[in-house]
Amino acid sequence: MSATGIGAPVKRREDFRFITGKGQYTADVNRHGQAYAYFLRSPHAHATIDAIDYAEALKMPGVCAIYTGKDLADDKIGGLICGWMIHSKDGSPMKAGAHPALAQGKVRYVGDHVAVIIADTLAEAKDAAEKINVTYGVLPANADTASAMKSAAVHDVAPDNRVYDWHLGDKGATEAAFAKAAHITKLDIVNNRLVPNPMEPRAAVGEYEEGSGVFCLHTTSQNPHVARLVLSAFIGIAPENKLRVIAPDVGGGFGAKIFIYAEETVCVWAAKKVGRPVKWTADRTEAFLADAHGRDHVSHAELALDANNKIIGLRVKTTANLGAYLSTFSSSVPTYLYAPLLSGQYNIPAIYAEVDAVYTNTAPVDAYRGAGRPEATFLVERIIEVAARERGLDPAQFRQMNYITQFPHQTPLIFAYDAGDFNASMVKALELADYKGVGARKADSAARGKLRGVGFSSYIEACGIAPSAAVGSLGAGVGLWESAEVRVNAIGTVEVLTGSHSHGQGHETTFAQLVSDRLGIPIEHVSIVHGDTDKVQMGMGTYGSRSGAVGMSAISKALDKIEAKAKKVAGFVLEAADTDIEFKDGKFTVKGTDKTIDFGSVALQAYIAHKFTGAQLEPGLKEGAFYDPTNFTFPAGVHICEVEIDPDTGVTRIDRWTAVDDFGAVINPMIVEGQVHGGIAQGIGQALLEGAVYDKDGQLLTASYMDYAMPRADDLPNYKLGFTETRCPSNPLGIKGCGEAGAIAAPPAVINAITDALGHENIAMPATPQAVWRAAQHAVMKKAAE
Amino acid sequence: MYEFDYHRPGTLDAAVKLAGEADAKILAGGHTLIPTLKQRLAAPKLLVDLHAVRELQGVHLKDGQLVIGAMTTHAHVADSALVKAHLPGLAALAAGIGDPHVRHRGTIGGSVANNDPAADYPSAVLALNATIITNKRSIKADDFFKGMFETALAEGEIITHFSFPAGIKSGYAKFPNPASRYALVGVYVAQHGSDARVAVTGAGANGVFRASTLEAALKGNFSAAALEGKSVPADGINSDMHADAAYRAHLIGVMARRAVAAAH
């Protein structure tokens, strides 16, 4: 392993510019003569718009234009789309209500877009917005998931607010398993609603060049090509060749920046209308109100065991809140990204899952770090833990006796796990966590008046999404391959154009490590280019922990082609057949001789083309590749959380955290550890602190950091990390992916630890001090009663 | 933010004059006022920034009283050798307000004049029985706090100093709101001879208040043990999505015991 090659903990090359304030984010893009957009948003969760009077506002100083949904419709601009078709049990398609970028006749959540005001300055746009008089007809609103189907219809197409009632699995086989069960564990589970909160809020700068007729949109996107595709093919801004989308430095996404939103759409459309660049930057309140939220499931689960405590069946009924409109990929999250993971790491012969997706008067809900897999993992790992307790079994042993041990393993729900060693991770985690010492530590805590608990999470996820044919058959509107182009310059430096998009993941480092390693050139000679549809031909972007497994595999495939071509060039230079050329450590050598030429010289020869004719070989050294994976990848691992609770206040302190993950091959262990740290922090945030709360009228009560609790450094423990490795057989690099693992694994580990400490199961996320205190009181009274 | 005029007077007299103009707002640390302005929830005509009025800054000891200028930052109070020596409980409270950014900008005068029901300082002022000195008069702590965000200050009246009795054994314990880290419940206890004063912030539906049951329990026995099993009734205690009245009332007892234990 070289100091910068595969497996080396290379410091992130992008961090110098980020931590010295030299990054170039969308908000840093300023154009001559730009105007500012401000969105007038609905103060009501559900209302008809009976009239919008903006005559006076139009006369305010600095105002260029005011547009409403009518203007979009007049220009034949289409609504926002949901790109994944889900069918109900009866085969009918999901009920997708219209989703105009600016409301047409009705608003459906607080923060919904009523009008855009474009002015010389943002302050002038806001001043004008205050002069707009909207006549609303307030309608009954509902934000609650469980009661959505009994509430006033959000969309006429779905009178009972049900988007679809979907199912997966063999119902008959599952009922049969429950009929013969020796023990059934039942659990009601709520997966709390979260606000993504990337550090950089969303932003957009729309431009239109009259001479060429080309639109350009700078935006905070995780997938600029998908944004262009949707804005072009569905919304109808302009054909793809007349629409350039650039996602420059992006400060975190966590899923929320996958989607095509109203504001970005309106900015690029309006740039032509007003004849000036149009800029919008969300403030934090707008981010809370109008970024797609995450999670929000209400479930009932039952687990069937035989007399030997082997799991024989699982059935799950889930209601998933998709908010007021279907966001770009929202329909897939509580279906194919969720239910197939309900097998967890366990050999469960029969599983049946039903999912009702519902509309409510809340912000749209879509993928958020983990997207469906945290919801599945939370459900599985909670009910497994409860079952172990009910049966008086050690939770680690109960898991071990039900682990899948043979691979490949076909679960009852779509997935074929290709490789793994779940027990190896458990054994290592038990050792790192000093599980044997838990009893003594519990006694020590008790002596200090504290309650100590330990909780497990033995998670698996499906990522590296995904084989295009597979997701196509499940309803996806796109393929989920990735593209790469490797351009070797004449003196041997390299640009790699990738369809992946880095918004914190460190691609400029890891991708360069792969290239440096393969071509034997210094990492400084490698540049990674991404995020611009004019530079990178096509790409599917970054989410679902796919950039390593899919994006880097595409680069690897392009590098194979580079190597093959370079060998031909070297053959002409060294006067040998290309089949006799070996390539190692950046040098081409004729087998069995000392005739050699380095990579840079071969690159030069490829471009000066003196040693071969055009008939023999094309000049130049540039290759592209599209890589479509053969399977999902299946990262898995065991996290163990140990908490100490202060029963006087209900404060939960995480004392120890052990994570043993199997991510397959690792390119940069330092970046992988960082991904795990961040993921666990978000998972702990969900378990202990975060929760989006709407009141009964649909007002978002947690619309700022005064009320929405984000995890801070002092909420988090030191993490003890370990790794096991089974290479992924489904891609050339053996990578499984690591970006979401921590966020998926962490919440059940925390809640299992808290319920272990309290001695009863009834605690919801976020387990706030008040909730824990109350549960602790309950536990104390229960104990006294016994 | 709406447009306003900004003034930064160099003397108290000039500041008082400006503050007396119509729709003037006084700017101290700005931690409440600036966000309010940014959200367009206030539209003053002019802002009178007190940062250049040097006589409002600093700590000194005079006639057994610790005198703290209204524009003294939390960080200054926390680090002041005088405060640490004569009212270590107050220094500890200041060291626990917000984060370093907040502590280097926020001021004791701004905090007390604003009387946010979840601010830390009002509890210390009340429990220590401090005197609030303004450009016009002196006001006893018991007469100063009038309810949430309300004080005895008249329009345009500026707090200049606080006078705390030095050498009092006192302590503060705060249970922070997990989101904002403001006090969900904060309790300041102070020993005045054989009496005790206990002031509670964060929890009162009407802002900071004295907890008479706890004061009675501590009379003649200023110890955590004296408060065992004691709390305050939940009537008049705040209920919101972060904590209901019963939990807050319970926490008042817990924090009071911890404050006494921490007192020195």
Give your account of this protein's structure.
The complex is a heterodimer of chains A (786) and B (264). Chain A starts with 14 loop residues before the first helix and ends with a helix. Chain A has 19 helices and 28 strands. In chain A, helix 9 runs parallel beside helix 18 (741-758) and helix 17 packs across helix 18 (741-758). With 786 residues, chain A is α+β, with helices and mostly antiparallel strands. In chain A, the strands form 7 sheets. A 7-stranded mixed beta sheet of chain A has the order 3-5-1-12-9-10-11, with helices on both faces. Chain A has a 5-stranded mixed beta sheet with strand order 7-15-14-13-8. A 4-stranded mixed beta sheet of chain A has the order 18-26-27-28, with helices on both faces. Chain A is globular. Chain A has 3 domains: 33-139 and 199-252 and 257-290, Aldehyde oxidase/xanthine dehydrogenase, a/b hammerhead (Aldehyde Oxidoreductase, domain 3, Alpha-Beta Complex), CATH 3.90.1170; 294-404 and 412-466 and 631-785, Aldehyde oxidase/xanthine dehydrogenase, molybdopterin binding domain (Aldehyde Oxidoreductase, domain 4), CATH 3.30.365.10; 481-627, 2-Layer Sandwich (Aldehyde Oxidoreductase, domain 4), CATH 3.30.365. Chain B has 264 residues and is of the alpha+beta class. Chain B folds into 3 domains: 5-48; 57-165, Uridine Diphospho-n-acetylenolpyruvylglucosamine Reductase, domain 3 (2-Layer Sandwich); 170-262, Enolase-like, domain 1. Helix content of chain B is 31%, strand content 25%. In chain B, the strands form 4 sheets. In chain B, strands 4-5-10-6-7 form a 5-stranded antiparallel beta sheet. Chain B has a 4-stranded antiparallel beta sheet with strand order 11-12-13-14, sandwiched between helices. In chain B, a hairpin with a 3-residue loop joins strand 6 (131-134) and strand 7 (138-140). The mean pLDDT of chain B is 97.
